[in-house]
Amino acid sequence: MKKIALLTTLLALAAFADPYAKCVTCHGASGEKVALGKSKVIKDMSKADFISAMKGYQDGTYGGPTKGLMEAQVKGLSDADIEAIANKIAK
């Protein structure tokens, strides 16, 4: 049980250290995946479109079938976090 708690804590800290880390599971290391078979390929999005989408998820004005899931994922991201992810993955 202690090992599970420690692992969970370490994974959470890694996700907070690099906000992009929580994107990788569904979107792939380079943003190349269609997440859950429903999303856009984010590596093909412009930085402006990506930032607009993330802010739209945050305020509830953007999204399709994965809107509820994405709202929860981006809720705690700062503008700087969103910009850093956009610089890392979008065109």
From TrEMBL:
InterPro entries under this entry? Cyt_c-like_dom, Cyt_c-like_dom_sf
- Alphabetized Gene3D superfamilies for the sequence: Cytochrome c-like domain
Name any one Pfam family assigned in the record: Cytochrom_C
Q: Does the record carry Signal as a key word? A: yes
Domain spans labelled Cytochrome c: 7-91
Q: Which residues form the signal peptide?
A: 1-17
Query: What keywords does the record list, in alphabetical order?
Result: Heme, Iron, Metal-binding, Signal
> What's one GO MF term for it?
electron transfer activity
Q: This chain belongs to which protein, by name? A: Cytochrome C
